[in-house]
């Protein structure tokens, strides 16, 4: 059963159904700056039900997005066009909601859209928190990514059977992934190819130099984007903080502690900015 914060009848559709969002606010927000959740491959606001609630409990407004199909962007960049369109979608929601600035949490593929959005309009994004992010392991290829993803699927089903604590959110995540793969096979394939092509390091450094707060949270047991490669790519000049956890790829929506860690990182970035 879906939680009250993310039930389907509370989802708003924008741009002829291309963007789907859940926009939830606490009774007493502690900041006017909302948290956007930029989703990974196949993910929807429903997958982030527990994460959304953690941010609400911390006094933060949350806007979680998902995308139906792909859209063409008129912006000419070095990034895959469909990912540029996702970055533009984040900025469109910011404008439509009358928001001055947003903090963006990008999970997995969602890191790509988050970084692109900030690169297009740095003034609209206050902080970027990239969780298990795509785009930071150096040269990749679609066959290599597909191989790693296949191993991850096996690990996910084993965890579903053996880890009682994460069984409910894992089941929710796997069902959504299957639903997405069956209903949007072409979109899923195009997105996977894009993930294998993108490298974000230079852009993240440019954003950091412009004053956008930047932090990365990654797991030492991530089967998709290996920690060793991530650490070789990510330099201290790109980020304000790097948190390494003994975890896998999808802990953002599997463990409450991950959302709490992001809340602490956001608070740290806010405090750092206030001192400058």
Automatic annotation (TrEMBL):
Organism: Candidatus Daviesbacteria bacterium RIFCSPHIGHO2_02_FULL_43_12
Coiled coil: none
InterPro entries reported in the protein's UniProt record: AB_hydrolase_1, AB_hydrolase_fold
Gene3D superfamilies: alpha/beta hydrolase (3.40.50.1820)
Lineage: Bacteria, Candidatus Daviesiibacteriota
Protein name, per record: AB hydrolase-1 domain-containing protein
Residues annotated as domain AB hydrolase-1: 34-227
SUPFAM superfamilies given in the database record: alpha/beta-Hydrolases (SSF53474)
């Amino acid at each position: 059963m879906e939680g009250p914060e993310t039930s389907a009848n509370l989802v708003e559709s924008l741009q002829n159904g291309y963007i789907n969002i859940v926009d939830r606010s606490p009774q007493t927000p502690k900041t006017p700056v909302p948290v956007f959740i930029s989703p990974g491959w196949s993910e929807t606001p429903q997958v982030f039900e527990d994460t959304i609630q953690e941010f609400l409990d911390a006094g933060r407004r949350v806007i979680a997005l998902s995308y139906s199909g792909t859209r063409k962007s008129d912006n000419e960049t070095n990034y895959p066009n469909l990912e540029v369109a996702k970055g533009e979608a984040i900025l469109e929601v910011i404008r439509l909601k009358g928001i001055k600035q947003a903090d963006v949490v990008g999970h997995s593929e969602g890191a790509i859209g988050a970084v692109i959005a900030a690169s297009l309009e740095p003034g609209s994004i206050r902080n970027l928190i990239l969780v298990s992010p795509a785009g930071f392991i150096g040269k990749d290829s679609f066959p290599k990514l597909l191989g790693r993803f296949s191993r991850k699927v096996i690990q996910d089903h084993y965890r579903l059977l053996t880890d009682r604590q994460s069984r409910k959110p894992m089941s929710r995540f796997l069902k959504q992934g299957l639903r997405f793969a069956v209903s949007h096979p072409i979109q899923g394939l195009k997105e996977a190819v894009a993930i294998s092509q993108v490298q974000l390091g230079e852009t993240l450094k440019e954003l950091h130099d412009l004053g956008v707060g930047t932090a990365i949270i990654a797991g030492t047991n991530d089967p998709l984007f290996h920690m060793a490669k991530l650490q070789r790519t990510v330099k201290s000049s790109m980020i304000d903080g790097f948190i390494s956890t003994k975890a896998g790829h999808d802990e953002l929506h599997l463990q409450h502690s991950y959302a709490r860690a992001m809340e602490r990182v956001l608070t740290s970035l806010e405090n750092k900015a206030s001192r400058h």
